[in-house]
Specification:
alpha/beta, 14 helices, about 30% strand, binds NADPH dihydro-nicotinamide-adenine-dinucleotide phosphate
Length: about 400
């Protein structure tokens, strides 16, 4: 059906690429392009004998719009799937605009030097994408992504009005290391060491990092501590779910992870302020990334499950209604299937599905859209088919 240019070849991209290769009728051709081309070539070598999808590779530095434009012109894809880092979102969107090609990503733009992620930069492209007749689909991972689609689905099928959403992200996987991050350490640590915030009655309420803690008994996992974080889908859901009064996001963290993080923070290792080291400027967080285990090495060691979903409270036919929609994913099964653990899997599968929605024309509107702005039904169906089945639970236990 079409050709996709995939930018980035890390943990999430590897899963998305495996999934595209399982879905050759839609993904007839893919070009994997990244900064380190050897990673793209290694993946091609592994996957080409197993799939009808034609795989090519290329080297690109996605910080440079001109390089991206030249690559898109050469490869002529129908769509660019951005699975590099949030820092590259705008350069890749610029290149898509210049060449008239659809765009999909999994995380919103974040300037490298401020650790502040919000949609304003990407939403500023709305009119230009509309005029060019192309689509930018923002946030097609799990959270944002599936959690946003769950919200649209709950609204469409179960509620007249949703007033409260709690997004719960539980990773009960154990990799056996005292401290490691499940995806890009730099992005992960920037996210968890930032101030928390939630949306209430039309404005943001800010908290200290990890200030708000709750305990929740997760289906198929059990009781875990979870902490309120700022998370990007809150910003778009606050606009796209009418009648919303509050949206919070909680993520589980074990004690060992938090103790290590606190210690690293206290000694300045999580800072993104450059320092001089032996006559050279380095960024402590980037140095820390270099000494931590590579997230892609965690796959074979990780046991246990993830459970990510949303609890909704709202109204149906004038009565209060509560609903929980979640997915449970098993680290070891993911590793067996695609050679990655569940955190990369739960992001890579929806990235493939988002690309499929645009390639097949199932989702079709020019402009820049967050994922909950499209019809959730075909995406929900695809989740069941492609490895992330979901459960709808009526009257769940609520988070206080
Ligand atoms: P990784 O660090 O594993 O992979 C990033 C890839 O991007 C690497 O292949 C890297 O290349 C490449 N890259 C980085 N900079 C450039 C550049 N300038 N030009 C070209 N390629 C570049 O990250 P993950 O796979 O863990 O994460 C990928 C994305 O997914 C991130 O944006 C992350 O925020 C997002 N994410 C979203 C989630 C969701 O649920 N929505 C959950 C988890 C992640 P190299 O090999 O040379 O370093």
């Amino acid at each position: 059906m079409g050709k996709v240019l995939i930018i980035g070849c890390g943990g999430v991209a590897s899963v998305a690429i495996h999934k595209c290769c399982q879905n050759s009728d839609v993904f007839e051709e893919i070009c994997i392009a990244s900064r380190t081309v050897s990673k793209c070539e290694a993946l091609k070598e592994k996957l080409q004998p197993t799939t009808k999808t034609k795989i090519t590779t290329a080297q690109v530095d996605a910080d440079h719009v001109d390089e991206l434009i030249a690559l898109i012109k050469k490869e002529q894809p129908d769509l660019v799937l951005n699975l590099a880092l949030p820092y590259q979102d705008l350069t890749i969107m610029d290149a898509c605009l210049a060449t008239g090609v659809h765009y999909v990503d999994t995380a919103n733009y974040e300037p490298e030097d401020t650790a502040k992620f919000e949609y304003k930069w990407q939403w500023a492209y709305r009119e230009r994408f509309e005029k060019a007749g192309i689509t930018a689909l923002l946030g097609s991972g799990f959270d944002p992504g599936v959690t946003s689609v769950f919200s649209a689905y709950a609204l469409k099928h179960y509620f007249d009005e949703i007033n409260y959403i709690d997004i719960l992200d539980c990773n009960a996987g154990d990799h056996g290391y005292p401290f490691a991050t499940n995806f890009n350490p730099e992005i992960n640590i920037r996210e968890v060491s930032a101030k928390g915030s939630y949306w209430e009655n039309g404005h943001w309420v800010e908290t200290e990092p990890m200030e708000i803690k709750r305990v929740y008994n997760f289906p198929e996992i059990g009781e875990k501590d979870m902490y309120l974080l700022h998370h990007e889908e809150i910003e778009s859901l606050a606009l796209n779910i009418p009648g919303i009064k509050r949206i919070r996001f909680f993520m589980t963290f074990g004690e060992s992870y938090l103790t290590h993080l606190k210690c690293l923070e206290n000694v300045g290792m999580t800072s993104i302020e450059p320092i001089m080291y032996e006559g050279k400027e380095i960024i402590p967080l980037q140095f820390l990334k270099a000494v931590l285990p590579d997230p892609s090495s965690l796959g074979p060691r990780t046991k246990g499950k993830t459970n990510i979903g949303c609890i909704f409270i709202g109204k149906k036919d004038g009565k209060e209604k509560k609903l929980y929609i979640y997915n449970v994913c098993d680290h070891e099964s993911c590793y067996k299937e695609v050679g990655s653990q569940a955190v990369a899997y739960t992001t890579g599968v929806p990235a493939m599905i988002g690309a499929m929605m645009l390639l097949t024309g199932t989702w079709k509107k020019a402009g820049v859209y967050n994922i909950e702005e499209f019809d959730p039904d075909p995406f929900m169906e695809a989740l069941n088919k492609w490895g992330l089945p979901w459960v709808v639970e009526e009257n769940p236990t609520l988070v206080d």
